[in-house]
Amino acid sequence: LLCFHRNILMNFGLWTEYRTRKAEQRASSMRSASSSTIGADEAIEQKIQEFSESNHAEESSPLDISESGVFANGNENQSNSEFSISDDSSFSSDSDLFSMPMRTCSSVRDFGFDIYSFFRELLDSNKTAIVDVYTPMIMVDMLSYIVVIAGYSGFSNNDRGLLAQLANNEVPVQFLVIMMVFFGYTLVDRVSYLTKNASLKLLSFVSQVIVYNVYLVIINPLFITHKLISHNSSLQLLYIIRWVYWILSAYQIKVSFPVRVLGNCFGKKYNNFNKICMLIYFNAPFLFEIRVLMDWLFTDTTLTFFRWLEVEDAFVTTFLIKCTREIEKGYNYKRGQLMKKVADKSPYFLLFLLLIFIIWGPLLLFSFLNTTKVPAPVTYANMRIELGQFLSIYDGSNLDIEEVSYAQLLGNPSYTEVVRPYDPNSYDFNNITFDGQSESVWTITPPARERLIFTLANMNRTDEFLLYVRMQFSRLAVNSSSAVTGYQSRAIGEVTKALTDQERCQLVSVLCNSKVESGLCAALCNGTFCLDGMCKIQNYATLESIIPVFFTVSNTGFATAAENSQLVSVNATLHPHLDGQNSSSIQWWTLEQGDEDQFTLYTINEQV
User: DSSP 3-state assignment of 286?
Assistant: First the structure.
């Protein structure tokens, strides 16, 4: 198809060979050199016309197909008769075998010469650049960085964005590789621009076209995202941006590099915009230093690096002062003249208000808008009841957890005073059921058991004997679509109660679980349970008001009994189980609320 197109252009005289252009250039130079006399000019013009006509006739003549299958010009009758297809048998088979390798070598040599001529003309250093496109190229490079950062999900097989991975202290290796490749090519562009090396720029250009096309069209769709580029908007956008960059690079190579390559694109004009851009560039971490260091490394100068840095710093300072002076020309006041307070103070008063808003604005927004709270229901609850410093007598986990609405609790007269102070938009409620059977056995040693009985029966001690109810709740925050967000909070709480003498006596009776002499029983229980001269031994102890019905679970990790909450009274029973083989017993405690072997609690959960 290319050869057919070339043939049509040559027939219409629209195709000029490289050799013809060189010949015309030589003829033009001959004409300019011999322009001293009119006769010489006419002779040269006649020669040029004859030379051009012969070349035009050579190009526009119909093409024949030679024996080797390639196109050949018919500029001479003798060559046409020798290389055209005819029935003449003037060439023998031996001559054909000998001429075919020669024509092949000639074609390869001509093709190589054309490629060499193309690159030699492309890298010709005698061209003068009209436009410097390095600044637009850098801007397009910055757009490439932004596309990769904003649309990183299109470059990886991870659906999470880059910010979500960085928030979890994860730095994707693929992201680092892409950024390093971008940065490497940016440095190569800067080096070729400073050294005016068109060969380096051309090599970088060709390698970029190959690398980016292979990655964006083959590697990323087939091995990473498994999505075609037509279904990946991030890849499409990056591909378009890179094509714009390649067009600018090709134009830079074509017109070569400008003679003066130092300077700053922001320093061309003196206005507010350039001043702000210069301040951002000058104060960006390491950007100014890297650029100055590269300029010094790849520029022939007698200055040391630190002197060069001082010159650059002086240029920036002078530029900022010049921008300020140009901006002051638009004022209605001369320098040193007192300005009106409105015109002088208003910009800085707005800056003052901005600083105040930065300090207090986030607190006000979170306080009034409060748009970040989501429900955090309880997913696990555990209760432990301990007698002083001894082993816990009850250890149980939740059997069932259900969500309860605010209206349901408010409809119960017993719970109205408890739940009314809590806003249903900031709190959610759960119903938790516990089994009365302890999940762990009571493995107290005989000496510790005797010490517990002695401590409970010692009425003369002034120290209170405390009972501890320790609660532990685990929550999982969810969003409006009930999808787990990964936030998990654990809250712990503790309620203490000083046992009364009656409760202590009942616990002693449960622990003894055998008849004793009335004197001892009276000494232990202070005569409270004496009946017919004997102390009544009970199988259970009634513990009054030890477990709150409502617990408030806060985001700070603490669970406390809700204000005005009712307290549950339970009957604690110690169950022994004898082992017939070794005559040992296993004991565990049971808590009963009236006739039921289960009891229910409610949690008021602060949303997160």
Answer: coil
Cα–Cα dist 456/449, whole Å: 11
CA distance 468 to 543: 12
CA 190 to chain centre: 28
In this structure, what token pair is assigned to residue 456? 């409970």
Low-confidence ranges of the chain (pLDDT < 50): 1, 18, 33-34, 36-38, 40-41, 44, 55-94, 97, 480-487, 514-523, 525-535, 580, 582-583
Please state, in angstroms and rounded to a whole number, the distance separating the CA atoms of residues 565 and 569. Answer: 13
Q: What is the DSSP string of 189-232?
A: HHHHHHHT-HHHHHHHHHHHHHHHHHIIIIIIIIIIS---GGG-
Q: Tokens 């003894």 label which residue?
A: 512
* Contact status, residue 467 vs residue 546, Cβ threshold 8 Å: yes
- Location of structure tokens 């555990």: 382
- Whether the CB-CB separation of 245 and 137 falls below 8 Å is answered with yes
CA atoms within 13 A on the CB side of 76: 4
**530 and 518 in contact (C-beta within 8 Å)?**
yes
Q: What's the pLDDT score for residue 522?
A: 43
Closest CA to 410 of 400, 401, 420, 402: 420
For residue 186, CA distances in Å to 181, 191, 208, 217, 395 come to 9, 9, 11, 22, 66
Which residues, in sequence order, are CB contacts of 374 under 8 Å at separation 6+? 477, 478, 479, 480, 485, 607, 608
Pairing label, strands 598-606, 550-553: parallel
User: Which two tokens mark 76?
Assistant: 């001479």
Distance CA 266, CA 388 (A): 76
d(CA 303, CA 321): 25
Write down the pLDDT at residue 14.
Answer: 58
Instruction: Of 133, 113, 294, 108, give the one whose Cα is nearest residue 205.
Output: 133
Task: Provide the whole-model pTM.
Answer: 0.47
d(CA 226, CA 235): 12
Strand order in the sheet with 540-548: 540-548, 567-578, 585-592
Task: List, for residues 281-308, the tens digit of each pLDDT value.
Answer: 888 888 889 999 999 999 888 999 999 9
State how far the Cα of 309 lies from the Cα of 316, in Å rounded to an integer: 11
Residue listed under structure tokens 């003068």: 128
DSSP characters for 183-201? HHHHHHHHHHHHHT-HHHH
For residue 126, the 8-state DSSP code is T
> Looking only at Cα atoms, what is the longest distance across the chain?
159
SS3 category, 146: helix
Who contacts 498 (Cβ-Cβ below 8 Å, separation ≥6)?
464, 465, 466, 467
Q: How far apart are CA 240 and CA 259, in angstroms?
A: 30
Q: In Å, what is the CA distance from 119 to each residue of 130, 203, 274, 513?
A: 20, 12, 39, 107
> Cα–Cα distances in Å, from 509 out to 444, 527, 577?
17, 13, 18
Q: Supply angle C-alpha 293, 265, 237, rounded to 5.
A: 95
Q: Residues 35, 91: contact at Cβ < 8 Å?
A: no
Question: Inter-axis angle of helices 446-457 and 518-525, to 10 degrees?
Answer: 70
